[in-house]
């Protein structure tokens, strides 16, 4: 916790010009309505629901919910919960960066 921007490590496997262009486009979005418009065009409904489910799983794991509670509330499989948990514990700290910023806004 309390990491600075420089502490977050970029995954070299996803660093491409196309991904850079996508992220630059995302950074232009100003509010939730614009996010809905953009992501509904870019993603299928199932892709968007999968992304939101993984985010919800991560949030609930950080709130110390059990796998059973998370599976019941989100419909995520234990395999998905386990993968998200692995990202939280051994990933690039992207989830925690966002959680910290959201907490700071409260």
Please name the defining characteristics of this protein.
Trp Operon Repressor, Chain A, disordered N terminus, globular, 106 residues, DNA-binding transcription factor activity, mainly alpha, single chain
Question: Topology of this structure?
Answer:
Blueprint: H1 17-27, H2 32-42, H3 45-62, H4 67-74, H5 78-90, H6 94-105
Pfam families: Trp_repressor
InterPro entries: Trp_repress (IPR000831), Trp_repressor/repl_initiator (IPR010921), TrpR-like_sf (IPR038116), YecD_YerC (IPR013368)
GO molecular function: DNA-binding transcription factor activity; sequence-specific DNA binding
Description:
- There is one protein chain.
- With 106 residues, the protein is mainly α.
- It has 2 domains: 11-42, no CATH class; 46-105, TrpR-like (Trp Operon Repressor, Chain A).
- The protein has 6 helices and no strands.
- Helix 3 crosses helix 5 (78-90).
- The model is unreliable at 1-8 (pLDDT under 50).
- This is TrpR protein YerC/YecD.
- InterPro entries: Trp_repress, Trp_repressor/repl_initiator, TrpR-like_sf, YecD_YerC.
Tell me the count of domains: 2
Number of strands: 0
What's the rounded overall pLDDT mean? Answer: 91
Name the shape in a single word.
globular
CATH topology of the largest domain: Trp Operon Repressor, Chain A
How much helicity do the residues have? 55-70%
Give the helices and strands as they follow along the chain: HHHHHH
Span from first to last CA? Answer: 17 Å
Count of runs of 4 or more consecutive helical residues: 6
What is the SS-derived class?
Answer: mainly alpha
User: Over all CA atoms, what is the radius of gyration?
Assistant: 15 Å
Parts with pLDDT < 50 across at least 5 consecutive residues: 1-8
Residue share in β-strands: under 5%
